[in-house]
TrEMBL record:
Pathway: Amino-acid biosynthesis; L-histidine biosynthesis; L-histidine from 5-phospho-alpha-D-ribose 1-diphosphate: step 4/9. InterPro entries: Aldolase_TIM, His_biosynth, HisA/PriA, HisA_bact_arch, Isoase_HisA-like, RibuloseP-bd_barrel. Keywords: Amino-acid biosynthesis, Cytoplasm, Histidine biosynthesis, Isomerase. It comes from the Bacteria. This is 1-(5-phosphoribosyl)-5-[(5-phosphoribosylamino)methylideneamino] imidazole-4-carboxamide isomerase. GO terms for molecular function: 1-(5-phosphoribosyl)-5-[(5-phosphoribosylamino)methylideneamino]imidazole-4-carboxamide isomerase activity. Pfam families: His_biosynth. One of its GO terms (cellular component) is cytoplasm. It is found in: Cytoplasm. It catalyses: 1-(5-phospho-beta-D-ribosyl)-5-[(5-phospho-beta-D-ribosylamino)methylideneamino]imidazole-4-carboxamide = 5-[(5-phospho-1-deoxy-D-ribulos-1-ylimino)methylamino]-1-(5-phospho-beta-D-ribosyl)imidazole-4-carboxamide. One of its GO terms (biological process) is L-tryptophan biosynthetic process.
């Protein structure tokens, strides 16, 4: 299973939010490029970068920082946050991203997702953010009357192969991931799943790894790493990325 340290950007800083709320912010570093370099030096083979300002604004806002992170990292970087047009998508790829994560636009304009997949293939990932089983959009500030698993199946029908699945109620809480919802998504959504939100311990990571046969191929780690609940080296060893 792939382990991806998260770097969430807000106003050029590396932060984490509690349940996606901008007023519940913890700043971990004012130098996200150094943070990225540090994770790679400790063994990260992928990084997951989120432009939080972009998610709230509806367009990328930290592109220069993202490009600097990608140059410094030297490993593939997956980028999401505010990518709601083909122009924005192309700009993030031009900055060096290996994958882009489409969230809100996948709900509001699925035809754009289809065109993006036709043009960029597996470099396009869908972000499925769920609150009580319903899809959340616009930086998690709104939900729509669409079941998360149903939405995943719709994205699979458009040619999408992979999704980042986040249970918002668990994100940044260190309360453990929603294993049941992640299992349901992996079994029923028709997509490869990268799990995100709430991972607090190596036992949590072990529980997600047990879902690998059902389609969970990776996990994004944020606050648990930054708070030192366990080390990246321990997570990588447990995940067995070379398997």
């Amino acid at each position: 299973m792939l382990v991806m340290p998260a770097i969430d950007l807000r106003e050029g800083r590396c932060v984490r939010l509690y349940q996606g709320r901008p007023e519940a912010e913890t700043v971990y570093s004012t130098d996200p490029v150094a943070v990225a370099r540090g994770w790679v030096e400790r063994g990260a083979r992928w990084l997951h970068v989120v432009d939080l300002d972009g998610a709230f604004a509806g367009r990328p806002r930290n592109l220069e920082v993202i490009a600097a992170i990608i140059r410094a990292a030297g490993v593939p970087v997956q980028v999401g946050g505010g990518i709601r047009s083909l122009e924005s998508l192309a700009g993030v790829l031009a900055a060096g991203a290996s994958r882009v994560v489409l969230g809100t636009v996948a709900i509001t304009n699925p035809e754009l997702v289809a065109r993006a997949v036709e043009r960029y293939g597996e470099r396009v990932v869908v972000g499925i953010d769920s609150r009580d089983g319903q899809v959340a959009i616009e930086g998690w500030e709104a939900t729509v009357a669409r079941g998360a698993v149903e939405f995943a199946r719709e994205m699979a029908s458009l040619g999408v192969t992979r999704a980042v699945f986040t249970d918002i109620g668990r994100d940044g809480t260190l309360q453990g991931p929603n294993i049941a919802a992640t299992r349901e998504m992996a079994r029923g959504g028709g997509l490869k799943i990268i799990a995100s939100g709430g991972i607090a311990s190596l036992d949590d990571l072990r529980s997600l790894k047990e879902l690998a046969a059902e389609g969970v191929e990776g996990a994004i780690l944020g606050r648990s790493l930054y708070n030192g609940n366990f080390t990246l080296e321990e997570a990588l060893a447990l995940a067995g990325e070379g398997d």
